[in-house]
């Protein structure tokens, strides 16, 4: 991707938690903050934040998306990086905000904010160059790559590199790692049968690895995958990578 | 198809209920994506050839009106008669005129998606003209009375066993043998006789070279060469976007197309057609016609964002990599162009009233964008069409056809909630307290919980946890 490598490790970062994390996975959100703090950073969580605007943007309601994105713009003054525990929301901000604000009076500000957005694992690897010490029990896991993390943020190897740093964790990759899990935002309810078929294939792939846990960096995918695992009575657990890493380094 | 589904949702449900069909697609697409990947082991080479092919297409589109005039001029000079068709009806009428003039009874066809777009076979049959598809896959779907399910591999939805049963049923003296070599040989014998007897051969065009008036046609079976050289009259059909400027623009296209499509380094046949038989030549048709079809393409061309749709070289790689197409197959789209390219092209040609559902049959995973050899921003165009579908007065045919007052109100409410920190705090607190009591029978939740457990709202939001932990707000 076209991220400029951060010249020096910053002392302060903003955290954009995302609405799905806020509502459904707040512990994963806190774990992301913890990981950043454990690297000596001051983490700022602007309480005025809500959503990046992606749901409306992808549904054809650009004015509504703009209104919501605009409400986030003033929460991140200055130059500090903005870290997001989601490849999809980070992709919306980094890649689509410049398009969304094109021709608007606050376009320059949106472009400035967008250029400072990092997906969490990307930030941990490329900017903080973290070295993790595993304090957990031996465990086999697999990695689910979100489509937008891979294809909008260019995050492919970073999360797997972090998982491989963990001495007691065995990472078994999926056969079809690049294939969508079938979430797709409103797609899951507009085309529930197709979405179900897609997540069915994803579950089969996950089970094929015989991993105890499927780790991902995006809560949309996790809602879909863990929901299907649960409904299907499968023993595999799903977890956000922030929470997983936090547990491993603290030995929880 | 056993019945005629009326929309994508219904047609895809029917496809999902067919385990044989799903198995056929899953296996075929897994194989094709693997074969394609093997063709591009070096990312630097891939980025290079892709940039080159994209630039060829972009340059052609940038000069499209000029190149089309030049193409007509040079084709005419080469003895090819050029016809312009604004609509599919006009294109069919042009074809019929030629066929009637030469009193054609039998037509053999090479693969042409534009003629699928025209429903030409049905028109010819209605006019008492026998038409035979000679591409093996097209021949199979014609025998089966269905449509191609893929633009490159029309019969990819069928396996050898199903094809053996079909041949046994439809071809005289066919043995019941599930053997690809036998079945191919059987089809070849049927086709060979027809090539010799045909009055007219028809084909598509992969690229038409403006500066030389050459029609380039690539294929694997030699049927394209037979159709374009054996019968006394050859009619080629192309969408107006298929023009390229120079002869040297052809290699990047015909190199990337098969590598992307079927994972072949090159097709078995590359035909460069530059006119009818000349005096003293021993073979070739007496007449060559080129029918250039618009059918909505000039409207697509007029919009700078939508114009990228016309870059397409019809390799079908986007289908092979589409997780939705992989599940439901090509027939569910009920269109000549299925999969990602179909989801953006067909609504623009046929209008959002009829086809407004297609741009939503997509998770926006971007797998197609990642492998498109000419870098079409398929998902961006998909997003644009979603806007056009609910917004009257746009550039696309039937813009606003899917506008819904209820949906607009929901999004307006959603925006009001998410644009005000106070409203957001109140709403998320309410969801945390009451959301989990929502019954699974609620409309959208019912769809979600068909195969998933109900999403559980956390008791405290991240906002609450961060505040409680003293995480600074600014």
TrEMBL record, chain A:
Cysteine-rich domain location: 13-94, 141-225
InterPro entries membership: Cys_rich_dom (IPR004017)
Pfam families: CCG
Name the record gives this protein: L-lactate dehydrogenase complex protein LldE
Species whose genome carries this gene: Azospirillum picis
UniProtKB/TrEMBL annotation, chain B:
Record-annotated 4Fe-4S ferredoxin-type domain positions: 302-331, 353-382
Keywords (A to Z) from UniProt: 4Fe-4S, Electron transport, Iron, Iron-sulfur, Metal-binding, Repeat, Transport
Keyword Metal-binding among record annotations: yes
InterPro entries, A to Z: 4Fe4S_Fe-S-bd, 4Fe4S_Fe_S_CS, FTHF_cligase-like_sf, Helical_ferredxn, LUD_dom, LutB/LldF, LutB_C, NagB/RpiA_transferase-like
UniProt keyword Transcription present: no
UniProt xrefs under NCBIfam families: LutB/LldF family L-lactate oxidation iron-sulfur protein
Protein name per the record: L-lactate dehydrogenase complex protein LldF
Native species: Azospirillum picis
